[in-house]
Design goal:
This protein is mainly alpha-helical and 301 residues long. The protein has one domain (6-300). The chain has 13 helices and no strands. It has helices at 6-23, 26-35, 40-65, 74-97, 103-110, 113-124, 131-148, 159-181, 188-210, 220-247, 250-256, 259-270, 278-300. The radius of gyration is 19 Å and the shape is globular. The mean pLDDT is 88.
Length: 301
C-alpha cells in the first residue's frame, strides 16, 4: 500500500477545506446576480458556459500533447448524457430554491445527498445497510423537518423551496451513483467537459421553453460575479477536490465537505442578512451529523 507523506496529507487537508469553502460560495455569486436583475437560466448559462470554456482550453492542450483524447464510445456518450441531464436538474432546482428560501438553509438541506446516496445504494443495489446508515437517515429527516419549521419568525420555510432542494440533492446523489457504477475511464476534466456542455445547452433550452430569455450580465460587477461562479465554486473546487481525494482519501474529504453548507450559511447570514435561529442551528447540526455517520458507515464497509 502506497504511503502518503505528512506534507502531502497536509496539502490534502488544505485542498479539502478549500474545495468545500469554494463550493459553499455558490450563494454569494447567485444572490448578487439576482440582485443585478438576472434570471436563473441566465446565471446558470454563464456559469456553466464560462466554466466549460476554461475546461475546453485544458482539454485542447491535453489533446494537442496527446495525453487525452476527446473521443468517447457510444456507451460513454450515453453515460455522459445521463450525467449532464442529472446535473442540469440538480443545479436548476437548487438555484430556483434561492428565490424561495434562505440560500444558507437551502445549501444545508442539499448536503443530505450523501445520506440519500447511502439509502439508494442500500435499497436498490443491495448494499448492506448499517446501523450508522439508518441513524443517518433518521437524523437527516429530523434535521430537514427542523429547518422547515425553524423560521426565525416562528413560521415555516417555503414548502416549494424545500421540495426543490430535496430534488436537487436526490439528482446529485443519482449523479454520484452513475459515476460510481459506470465504466467511465477518463479524467474528471474530460467528464466535466461534456457535462458542462450539456448544462450550458440545457440552460439555453430552459430559457427558451420557460419564456425567460438569456440576459447578458448588465454591469461589470455582474460579469465579475459570473466569472466567480465559473471559477471558484466550479473550476477551483474541482481541481482541489482531485488533490484532496488523492492525498487525503475520500472519507476525510467527504467529512470536511461539511464546511460547504457552513460557508453558505455564514455568507447568507453575514452578507445577505438571512434569518437565523436556535432551531435552525439544531437542524443544521443534525444534518451534518447524519452526513458524517453515513460517510463513516460507508468507509467501514
Amino acid at each position: 500500500m502506497k504511503q502518503i507523506s505528512a506534507s502531502k496529507k497536509a496539502i490534502g487537508v488544505v485542498c479539502a477545506v478549500g474545495a468545500a469553502v469554494c463550493y459553499g460560495t455558490n450563494p454569494l455569486g447567485a444572490l448578487n446576480l439576482y440582485a443585478e436583475g438576472m434570471n436563473t437560466p441566465s446565471v446558470l448559462f454563464y456559469r456553466f458556459g464560462l466554466a466549460w470554456l476554461i475546461i475546453a482550453c485544458v482539454m485542447g492542450y491535453k489533446a494537442v500533447r496527446g495525453s487525452e483524447s476527446l473521443r468517447v464510445t457510444k456507451r460513454e456518450f450515453l453515460t455522459l448524457s445521463a450525467l449532464g441531464v442529472l446535473f442540469i436538474f440538480s443545479s436548476l432546482t437548487l438555484y430556483l430554491s434561492f428565490h424561495l428560501m434562505p440560500a444558507g438553509v437551502a445549501s444545508t438541506i442539499l448536503f443530505t445527498y450523501p445520506v440519500m446516496t447511502a439509502a439508494i445504494m442500500a435499497f436498490f443495489f443491495r448494499e448492506r445497510i448499517s446501523v450508522a446508515t439508518v441513524l443517518a437517515i433518521v437524523l437527516s429527516l429530523a434535521g430537514v423537518l427542523l429547518l422547515y419549521w425553524g423560521d426565525a419568525d416562528g413560521g415555516t420555510l417555503s414548502l416549494g423551496g424545500v421540495v426543490l432542494v430535496l430534488v436537487s440533492a436526490l439528482t446529485y446523489a443519482l449523479y454520484i451513483i452513475v459515476v460510481d457504477k459506470s465504466p467511465l475511464q477518463m479524467s474528471s476534466f474530460k467528464i466535466n467537459f461534456y457535462v458542462l456542455f450539456y448544462c450550458a445547452a440545457g440552460m439555453a433550452l430552459y430559457a427558451l421553453v420557460s419564456g425567460q430569455p438569456l440576459q447578458l450580465p448588465p454591469t461589470p460587477t455582474a460579469w465579475l460575479w459570473v466569472s466567480w461562479l465559473a471559477v471558484v465554486p466550479a473550476i477551483m473546487a474541482l481541481v482541489m477536490m482531485v488533490y484532496a481525494a488523492k492525498y487525503l482519501g475520500s472519507t476525510p474529504t467527504a467529512i470536511l465537505g461539511a464546511l460547504e453548507p457552513t460557508t453558505a450559511v455564514v455568507i447568507g447570514v453575514l452578507v445577505f442578512g438571512e434569518p437565523f435561529s436556535g432551531r435552525l442551528v439544531l437542524g443544521i447540526v443534525l444534518i451534518l451529523t447524519a452526513v458524517v455517520l453515513a460517510v463513516l458507515g460507508k468507509a467501514r464497509r
